[in-house]
Specification:
Length: 454
């Protein structure tokens, strides 16, 4: 390097242009304003930063508190096992009935159609459909004009027959009197014959006198025989007149009965059925007028299985209900057949139901049940509470073990089963608390939590 290159070159400063004094003042003023704005902006950021810092601290404290409580609850829950939710109930006492169910139709004790026994026009109907009537009550009246005319003619025939009978009686009585005279004449001529015959035999009288009394006796006897024949004929005429009179009188009685038949009456007490005819209609003999049903008592036919022979007896209680399960009434076994049906191997029986208010109907379908026996104060539980395992039957009892309820198996013996309850004959006392639902996941000793409990 040459000595000349180590020397520094000093350049003269450039000459600054001159600035206007007024313009310099404006720039200074704008600069101060800008500085003030920047200072205010820095202050607002500090305020918002402080607020954000406080919010963050608060949220962090809340989160810590929640985590702390959650951890405490988890620790508590882990210290006590959670039980299976179950519903509890108690064993109750009630009267248990051993029953058998049957279905059938009620039958009225008596039912009959009411027919017209003569032809004629319906003049009046005295009853209405569904009316309760007594035996002998008038139901309707049929026109009797033709029958009344026939009765008048028959009565005239009776009068004529009575006159003919009186004539025959008078003739017979006259002939009977005449026969008495003829008989007396015969007796007289017989006495004359004996007397004359004796005298002729003694020679006191001539033979001609005997001949005369003989002719007189024979004439008297002939007259008596003729009178007897006339009496027999008169008796026959009288008998015929008597028979004719009796026939005419029977005709009148028959026509009077027919006249009475024109008023139709109830053959027995009962309820009037449908009346298909109206007043003014003409009926032939045998036409239906209405029907009557005696439904004071109604019977239900039952076919009892032969296995129940030992339990079947007169007077057993039978309850009936309709197809909807509404109670209809209580009856009693009133008939038991002495033989068994060979095809069905069942015993025919009847249950009779009183029907004082007429609420039951002939032919009505009913469901019935015979009550074979009743057991009062029987222990029953809901059927849903029973657990079946093979031949074993048991329930779960809620037992407190160190503050925790557990399920404990309790073997039981069952009796009669009903729709929703079952009888327990052994293993439970009345009032014992049991699990009645929620047993699907239970086992002996499993923790449980009663529904609705604290």
């Amino acid at each position: 390097m040459s000595p000349q290159s180590s020397k520094k070159t000093i350049e003269a400063p450039e000459k600054q242009p001159e600035v206007d004094k007024d313009s310099s003042l404006e720039q200074e003023q704008e600069l101060k304003t800008l500085v003030k704005h920047r200072q205010k902006s820095r202050n607002w950021w500090k305020i918002w930063g402080a607020i954000a810092l406080l919010g963050g601290l608060g949220f962090g404290g809340w989160w810590w508190w929640q985590e702390y409580n959650s951890s405490s609850e988890t620790t508590t829950e882990q210290s006590q096992p959670r039980g299976t939710p179950v519903e509890l109930g108690v064993a109750e006492t009630t009267t248990v009935e051993e029953t058998s169910e049957f279905v059938g139709n009620l039958e009225a004790e008596k039912t009959s159609s009411i027919e017209s026994e003569t032809e004629g026009r319906i003049e009046e109907i005295y009853v209405r459909e569904g009316q309760q009537v007594a035996a002998g009550s008038a139901i309707a009246r049929i026109s009797a004009e033709q029958t009344q005319t026939e009765i008048e003619r028959a009565r005239s025939s009776v009068n004529a027959a009575q006159a003919a009978q009186e004539t025959a009686r008078a003739e017979l009585q006259a002939l009977i009197a005449e026969r008495s005279s003829a008989q007396a004449d015969v007796n007289l001529q017989q006495e004359q014959y004996r007397r004359i015959s004796g005298l002729v035999g003694q020679g006191a009288l001539a033979r001609q006198e005997l001949d005369r009394v003989t002719r007189d006796l024979e004439a008297a006897r002939a007259a008596l025989n003729a009178t007897n024949q006339r009496i027999a004929a008169a008796q026959a005429r009288f008998n015929q007149a008597q028979a004719t009179l009796e026939q005419r009188q029977a005709d009148v009685e028959l026509l009077q009965e027919q006249l009475q038949d024109n008023t139709i009456v109830a053959p027995f007490a009962g309820v009037i059925g449908d009346i298909p005819v109206k007043e003014g209609e003409y009926l032939q003999s045998g036409d239906d007028l209405t029907s009557i049903t005696a439904n004071q008592d109604l019977d239900l036919r039952l076919a009892i299985p032969i296995e129940r022979t030992a339990d079947l007896r007169l007077g057993l209680t039978v309850e009936a209900e309709d197809s909807r399960g509404n109670y209809l009434g209580t009856g009693r076994i009133s008939f038991i057949a002495p033989q068994v049906d060979t095809e069905s191997q069942a015993i025919a029986a009847k249950a009779t139901f009183p029907n004082p208010n007429g609420e039951l109907r002939d032919g009505q379908f009913v469901r019935s049940r015979i009550i074979w026996q009743e057991r009062p104060n029987a222990v029953v539980i809901p059927t849903t509470a029973i657990v079946y395992e093979g031949e074993e039957r048991f329930v779960y009892l809620p037992v407190d073990r160190e503050g925790q309820l557990i399920a404990q198996k309790q073997p039981i013996q069952l009796g009669l089963e009903r729709e929703t309850t079952t009888e327990v004959t052994e293993g439970l006392q009345p009032g014992t608390e049991i699990v009645i639902s929620g047993m699907q996941k239970l086992f002996d000793g499993a923790p449980i939590t009663p529904l609705g409990g604290d």
